[in-house]
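Input chain follows. Return structure tokens only.
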Amino acid sequence: MICGVDSTKSQEKVEFRKVLAILILSNKCHEITSFIDNDLSDNLLPFLKLGEERSPYRLALEGESESVSCFDGWTDEEVEEFDGHQWEVLAPFFARGPPSDDRVQQYELHYKRPLPFTPGEGDESFALKHLFRGSRTEFEREVEILARLSTWKNPHFVKLLITIEISSPHAKDLYLMFPWADSDLMQLWQGHQATRFATGAQNTIHQSARWVARQCYGLAQALNQLHNLEPKNQEELEASIYGVSAAAGGEEILTDETPLYGVHGDIKPQNILWYRRWDLYDDPLGLLQLADFGTGDIHRYISKSDFPRQEVQGTYRPPEFDLFQPLSRSIDIWSLGCVFLEFLTWLVRGWEDREFANKRMSQSMKAGLFEDTFFEIKSDGPKTIVQIHHGVVQWIKELRQHPRCTRYVHDFLDLISTQMLVVEPTESRLLIDSDNKPEIIGPRRTRIKSEELRNTLGKMFDRGVIARDSGPSFQRKQVEPHPTTKHLGKTDFLEKCGSVEEAYTFINI
């Protein structure tokens, strides 16, 4: 009876194992017959407290207002002890759906139910991201993006396993569960040499370069899929958990004809995870996955002015964050270009302390503090100059001259310096002369689109230009900066130029 019998009232198997365990913990083992006689089986747990008063302490079945009769004659302390012990045996069991089901499993739990996890690492470990109270928007935003991306089955996106909402009387705690990663990309760079990681054995620089090329192409492919999220069919549309546009404040329901754009917004090495082994992925050096979409967004607009800028700070942000300009998907291209440049640095030179980071240090005009960025904003009299950091330009030149700089690395540096790390012009950067006639000064350059970036890296990888041939003889003529442009009186902005060896200039009003 305690271990289970088939119920005559339903298809469920009726058991009393958990009830017995609770009674044993409460020193009430002899009361088990009362629970059996009243059909108060494991299936009916937990019993919930009635009211907020401490006395009388009463427990009832979920949805009922009358206390459970089995507790008649118990003291308040005994009922409270039973209540405390019942949660100890009610840890949830999380299960995946079938492999063909891409939907993210969602669990809503009572705040007293313990999560079935213990701290530690190992083959069966998971990563649990806890979004604290007040982070509901971030939670829904990240789940929405990951749910849509799961339909692509791209191994370079982090895989969201389940979501957990734990309800308390006053708020909800939100959790996202992911497979446990061996490290993030920054930890990989800092802890491993390019010629010795993952397998524990010595691998050639050619093997490492090929792995870097494959992973960079995969990340670019993933970014392109994120940037172009148009639903292909109704099935993909239904894969969205919330089905509303974050940009519309949850007011506009998405349809299968709604053009959707995704943006990550915070690409950096710490948000790219390294898995030494991954199912169905055959590279012995592992797999990189793009992660942490809490700052990301899904919207219907080419550019947005209400992106959460305060959530994106630090080294890998593009200059438009500091210039308070409308933001577009191209912010991800800049950030990924920064990551790619550091990736090539690790491949060619190794992770040599803070040498590259130190070269990027400059004094911020906003706070007056020194910070590490890939661009710099300088004041030159009435003008404010925004340009690629001179330390970055110098570092690219040094990489080109390194003995390990192959033809592939040269081509990749060209791609980064001329099409990714580009200070983009906008319609507001105009020269206004004495007749108030707007004139755009200098070339109007824009960053490469994610689709073109994916295609370019794919062609570079397919060409096999990662060969062992020496690179120093493969030189690129450096682009000289344009001469300083003389401004014509009071102006809003004066654009000078727009790529890595160039800069554009603004005139302060």
